[in-house]
Known about the structure:
Structural class: alpha/beta
Oligomer: single chain
Strand order of the largest sheet: 4-3-1-2-5-6
Shape: elongated
Number of strands: 6
Amino acid sequence: MATTVTTAVRRVQFCAGHRVLGHEGRCSNLHGHNYVVFFHAAADSLDEVGRVVDFGVLKQALGGWVDEHWDHGFIFGVDDGEVAAVYRERLAGQKHFALPWNPTAENMARYLLEVVGPQQLQGTGVRLVRVALWETENCLAEVVVDGG
């Protein structure tokens, strides 16, 4: 018999700039996107109301983090010394975020799933099992917990 998993999904939109270091095309330049991220959350059981979690909890915890750290900011990889120097020396007051990896859609989704989700949902009984990050209307990256 197959097991089923019920998820609650919250959609969050944000705008951010980035540069993909080492990219062979236009994405090697500084540019931005209107991102859409879908956070898929699961729990061991539904609550007394019959929910995985109230959607507002996901909005506040995950959407709040995105708003604070990424929305209307610039995301760059820690190995991108050129961009890091610009923010350190000339644009220190501007919103920016140093991602541990090159800021591809795949790595941004991974960061949300592996780092942000566990931090922001700690103590709620809810965990992220999938993050889908739309970089454009035509392109998305998805990261899924193994078995999720």
